[in-house]
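Problem 3 from the worked examples.
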Amino acid sequence: MDTKTEKIEIKVSEDREEESQVKTSKFKQFDTIDDDDEEKTQKSIKEHHYFVNQYPMDSELKTRIRREWEILKQGLPDSIYVKVYKQRRFDLLKAIIVGPKGTPYHDGLFFFDIQFPCDYPNSPPKLHYCSFGYVLMDERILPLNKWWNTEESNVLQLLLAIHHNLVSYEPPVTLNVPKIYTLPVTNSAEEKLKHIASFHKTCIFAFNCKTMLLLLHKPPKYFEEFVAEHFCDRAETILVAGKAYERGWFEIDHHATTTIPAIARGTTTTTTRYATWIGYFDFMGEEYPSLVRAFIKNGSPIGSYALLCCLD
């Protein structure tokens, strides 16, 4: 007998989504940091990974960097934000990529420090992923230097490539399963691989949440308001999704039609259960409540359903 599978979507109401768009519209996709006041901006610049790599800049390089700024102003999508230092450190910029929906990176904020090298564009920009101790990206997501084209490539293309790789990323899986995994009983190699992929994605989402917690406690300088506003908008979805993953209600990157109330109450009719990384249960029991408290402290409207499903 065939097993019926009902896919589930974590979503908020249309009114809530429209409200979110209105709130975030005040943040420019491309913005400048006035670093002429050295004392005021010193902390922010020192936080930059390439702060110590300072070199004299000629007018030709400054002109090229300004051209890059214009490309970024015109081409950044809604999911990518960039800030540049417009006075003392022309060579540095910071970027945020918002984790794309339908992936284990959803609703996360991923920060990158970028520097234009002294021989740019003959050499590609230097890129540092700010992992905050949790490595969520590897060489399959972060573009390698070999793709850089001196005549055609630019920083916008670099950021778009990272975002594209987040959307399309599939973790490498094999049938050699670590002992921490307990697979559902199945004779199908295809089904086993499917569940192992789910394990990997659950792990990524757990580390994604850990990064959120760190960002809420200590957001990067000049991004404090952005971080707070982002998690005000997305907290409820993040919390309910996390509990749904724990219970195996659906694959971490698949969505359909069931709303938050049905998921929080446990009234879904899904018959298929997806296996979960055992370490994820430890995370849910120990650190997830900290994320709930951090959202509340942030002023995030997490909703009664989110609170119920996270504290049961």
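Problem 4, a separate protein:
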Amino acid sequence: MSPTSPSASARYWLLKAEPDTRIVKGKDVKFSVDDFERVKTSPWEGVRNYEARNLMREMKEGDKALFYHSNCKVPGIAAFAQVSKEAYPDYTAWDSSHPYFDPVSQSRSSSLIQKSELTFPSSISQKSDSEDPKWFMVDLTFTSRAPHFVPLALLRKIADLAPSQGIPEEVGYLGEAGVASIKNMDLVTRGRLSVQRVEEGAWKAINELASRGGWEEMDLRPGKKLEKAKDGEPKAKSSLKEKAKPKPRKKASETKEDNSMSNDTKTRVDGDKEKPLGKATDEKRKVPAKRKREAKAEPDSEVANERDGLRRSTRARK
């Protein structure tokens, strides 16, 4: 059985670590997959969340774990591990020089040190209560790297799939059961907790993704959605609005006519009134009073048509 294969008795977890340098109290708290592979086994100290602490207290030796890169540019699952020592008091909470020092926990006793069978730095306060430790940790042992780093963006993309979309061809090997398991992972539904349970179905799905890959051509940006194409294959669809189609260009003859009309019907605005200017105005002024009277009597005359054209043009430009 491979180190990442599920067993009948094992339970599954996800634990987060920061792969990038971050200095706290003069010490670098980063712990990347390279660091993990180098040290092989490491205590999981520094957990200061009660829910995460309680989950670690449930862990049993031999339980399987996903090692997750957090608080970095590309978060995701980088390796596999297993629990090699069950929960014991986290002594770093009483070390005032440690980045994860908890001043509330400083009043604990030295008998806790003897009970844990650990050797602590001399800077740790000897005042404590061995019957009531506050924080706990487990030891994790590195088992293997993920052949394909499984980014959080991929898991979110899979979790966001609608039933009508179908499974993208690139990760079709997951099947409906695998997709459903990923949708229910705390990693995509809750996110921020540093220690999380992982169901067996999700464990298997992550192993498939890590071993087979194949999603390199998928667009994992949050603004993109996958839809089912006509041939049944998924395709990327942008969530951005499509650009408006350009208006068809007018023919040269139409453009010439429009230009000639606009040259004769330019207007200016005086308060709330528009006054025609230019050639059309001059021609209008030359029309004698008799012609004006005739125009009123004969609406189909050339002058009436000219005025109608002027009014239509003026309305069109408001």
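Solution to problem 4. The two ends are 79 Å apart (CA to CA). The chain is about 30% helix and 20% strand.
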